[in-house]
Amino acid sequence: MNAIEVNQIRKVYNQRDVALNGISFTIKTGESIVILGHNGSGKSTLFRTLTGFEEPTEGSVKLLGRGVDAGKRNHLRETRKKVGMVFQAFGLVDNVSVFQNVLFGALGQVKFAPATYSLFASDALRERAMECLDRVGLAHLSERRADRLSGGQKQRIAIARMLMQDPEIILADEPIASLDPKAGREVMELLKGIAEERNITLLMILHQLPIAKKYADRFIALKNGEVFADGDVTVIDENFETALFGNAGPEEASSDETSQHIEQEAKSS
């Protein structure tokens, strides 16, 4: 079964600014895919469309066989239940514990939100939360407040929270852009490892070619809101880099300095 189906989606702002222009692709269950492209290529708009935060002007998106309809909240909530999301900004609640943040990952699976509060959570939910924390290697920090963690630890907690959903798809939007090189490498290893051991479809939004080659099986490159190329990451070379990013290269096409350092580590590893 296809985990993700994108059919001729267009996104137009103000009736004239075309962000996406006829994007189509399918992703099979268990594939690890990276979306590549420079700033302004349409990566972020595509991500928001896949997650239902944006509604396409034309075309359709299906996740796990269900249509993504941003205009129907109940339908969108059902679609998202098995879709885990990882963002650059972590999205943790800073003034509560790590354990509580992970429990919040079960919000879509309970009838009442208080059932995810640590004081009221069932033994089954509490056990699952600790298992998720153990998988990301941070069970020993379960009682620490989230605002006392490093950036890398926060992203790993965000991944543990996502695992509480028991996802079949992981959508990761620039998951290492705000991390130092070591933490970025650890997060990429973690995401790839979880996807492989659980046969989860992993779709990452990145611009770094060396990281894409190391942690993805296939790439979809966007340029000017269209699919520029779609193929195995082994075909990525200097000629492809020049064709996609121009003479500036991916380092100058993105202003994120931390990501540049992570790219250098990926090249040398």
Automatic annotation (TrEMBL):
Q: Which CDD domains match?
A: ABC_PhnC_transporter
A single GO CC term for this protein reads: membrane
Give the matching PROSITE patterns.
Answer: ABC_TRANSPORTER_1, ABC_TRANSPORTER_2
InterPro entries xref list? AAA+_ATPase, ABC_transporter-like_ATP-bd, ABC_transporter-like_CS, ABC_transpr_PhnC, MetN_ABC_transporter-like, P-loop_NTPase
**Compositionally biased region (Basic and acidic residues):** 258-269
Q: Which residues form the ABC transporter domain?
A: 4-249
* Protein name stated in the entry: Phosphonate transport system ATP-binding protein
Keywords from UniProt, A to Z, are:
ATP-binding, Cell membrane, Membrane, Nucleotide-binding, Phosphonate transport, Translocase, Transport
Region (Disordered) residue ranges read: 248-269
Please spell out the taxonomic lineage of the organism that makes this protein: Bacteria, Bacillati, Bacillota, Bacilli, Bacillales
Molecular function as annotated in GO: ABC-type phosphonate transporter activity; ATP binding; ATP hydrolysis activity
